[in-house]
Amino acid sequence: MLRKLPGDEVQNVVSTRPDTSIHYRPVVVRTPGIVFLAVHLSRMVAALVKTVWRHPVACTLLAAAGALVYFFGWRVWVSVAGLEIAALASWFALSRSSFEACVALPALTWCRWMWVYRRKWAGIMAVAGLGRSLGGRSYLPDLVKVTCDRYADRVTVRMLSGQDPDEWAVSTAGLAHGFGADRCRVKVLKPGRLLLTFPRKDALAKVLPPQPIPDRPHVHAVFAGLTEDGRLFRMRVHGTHLLIAGATGSGKGSYLWAAVRGLLPATQAGLAELWGLDPKRMELAYGRALFQRYAATAEECAVLLEKAVEVMHERASRYGGVRRDHDPTTQDPFILVIVDEVAFLTAYQPDKGLKVRVMAALSTLTTQGRAVGVAVMAALQDPRKDVMSIRNLFPDRIALRLDEAEQVDMVLGDGARDRGALCDQIPFDPDDPSVGAGVAYVRLENSPEPIRVRAGYTSNDEIKRMVMQYTAAGEVA
Ligand SMILES: Nc1ncnc2c1ncn2[C@@H]1O[C@H](COP(=O)(O)OP(=O)(O)OP(=O)(O)O)[C@@H](O)[C@H]1O
Questions:
Q1: What residue ranges are annotated as transmembrane (predicted)?
Q2: What pLDDT does residue 248 have?
Q3: Total Cβ atoms within 10 A of residue 234
Q4: How confident is the model at residue 12 (pLDDT cuts 50, 70, 90)?
Q5: Which of 22, 51, 330, 458 is the most exposed place for a label (fewest CB within 10 A)?
Q6: pLDDT class for 477, splitting at 50, 70, 90?
Q7: Tens digits of per-residue pLDDT, 169-180?
């Protein structure tokens, strides 16, 4: 076997035992000291320039402190530092939000960049299997940027060339544990770049009040609650259809009532109509007077859905060739058809004829209704296909607490759970119904990445107040 190896290589063979693979002794190239020094010096200079570029404020402060001590001695430095601390404390007292944006969050970003992400990056990438070894060299994904806001760290990553984002999606649990977070979500920013979100504090831990009723009538999006980074969650109702799925007691009602609240001024102005289908009679019935049309029995529900289809067709025949979208007016108001527990009508309905009529009407509305201003918002507990075969016709979907992990992708689409939509892990406490209620992951038509949100809770008293305020005006039933 040795004789077959070409020329000089034979002298580099370290192991020649027949039961082991062949190892070659690495070739040693003697590098002149000056080259070695030049390489290390250039690396140091590059690192220095990079640090100053990335952290200009911290570097300027350090340089200024060093210059003070050098030129004026440490006593002057202590007095200046004392003055600076006093100035910062006054800034904090006077304007907490600007202090947070200009001082606290950049400082936190710097600390977390250095202490958490840079320090642990190589180890975690290797353990999570996201690095590669090629020809004896290790390659790791690049940590590009870290930004911290009040609630989460956002880490921008440059993937290895040719790496699949799904590889990251399946490693989210390991990444979250590694960097000391509860969860990690992965979002593709552009080819080759990912954004990892590691929440630090849960903006959605507490029960949220319902969002105020808007002062002016509009139909485009309603404020339903907060997103996990503390921003207002705008739920589109016009120009889409919304499916809301969640186990019993998960808080589906809070999304339905958020839509009703947000559209009340528009209904009062005649620019919108709320049509309620309430086969369970336990949810919408409480604010029945707020609905311009209301149905409870399966027969009434089928008739109301067919009426919506009729309006839709009539508008389509008028709009055809004249306009391509709907602008709400008092002649053609936006119609939101709200169906609570739609499975009562589509799956558990014993009357087959009614079931067929309901399914036909729902399919027609969800495929053709949005361009003419008729939208469907349907809530259900069980998202399986045999219960709701047309779930894919809803462009926007909200998944609250679900019983099984497999149900997440059924509602939000393939891969949603791997990208961080952990609906099956939303907390639930039978002794306190508010725990985790209203918390959901949302998948919007224009953004397939799931967003974690919580709806404000519209209590029964609040519904009563809405009825008093909006029915007393004489505009509704
Ligand atoms: N957004 C919310 N924030 C806090 N608590 C909430 C929220 N929504 C609902 N809850 C609590 O959860 C309970 C159940 O809510 P809700 O009836 O809306 O659930 P559901 O999903 O519609 O259940 P079901 O399908 O059984 O009707 C409420 O009585 C309330 O105590």
A1: 27-49, 56-77
A2: 92
A3: 17
A4: low
A5: 330
A6: very low
A7: 889 999 999 999
Question: Residue 183 is part of a domain; what is its CATH number?
Answer: 3.30.980
When the pLDDT of each residue in the chain is averaged and rounded to a whole number, the result is 88
By the 8 A CB rule, do 346 and 386 touch? no
Same domain, 226 and 315: yes
Residue whose CA lies nearest to ligand 1 atom number 14: 249
Given a cut of 60, whether residue 473 has pLDDT beyond it is: no
Q: Is 252 annotated as a binding residue?
A: yes
Number of structural domains (the chain) is: 3
- Residue 454 and residue 324 share a domain: yes
Cα Rg for the chain, rounded, in angstroms? 30
Of 211, 233, 244, 254, best ligand 1 pocket probe by most atoms within 8 Å of the beta carbon: 254
Q: Residue 342 in contact with residue 278, Cβ under 8 Å? A: no
Cα 264 to Cα 162, 177, 473, distances in angstroms: 51, 45, 11
Contact of 453 with 247, CB cutoff 8 Å? no
Residue 261 lies in a domain: yes
For atom 4 of ligand 1, the residue with the nearest CA is: 434
The protein residue whose alpha carbon is closest to atom 23 in ligand 1 is 249
Per-residue pLDDT of 125-165, as tens digits, reads: 999 999 998 877 889 999 999 999 988 999 999 999 999 99
Q: What is the ipTM of this complex?
A: 0.96
φ, ψ dihedrals at 448, nearest 5°: -70, -10
Query: Whole-angstrom Cα distance, residue 8 to residue 222?
Result: 76
Nearest to 275 by CA among 290, 261, 297, 255: 290
249 is in an annotated binding site: yes
Q: What is the pLDDT of residue 54?
A: 77
For residue 246, give the ligand 1 atom closest to its CA.
21
152-158/142-148 β-pairing: antiparallel
The residue with greater pLDDT, 18 or 272, is 272
Q: For the purposes of burial, counting CB atoms within 10 Å of the CB of 337, is it exposed (0-12), middle (13-18) or buried (19 or more)?
A: buried
CA distance 268 to 25: 85
Dihedral angle sign, alpha carbons of residues 257, 259, 265, 266: negative
109 is an annotated ligand-binding site residue: no
- Quote the crossing angle between the two packed helices 105-112 and 56-72, to the nearest 10°: 90
Domain that holds residue 57: 49-94
Q: How far is the CA of 246 from the centre of ligand 1 (A)?
A: 10
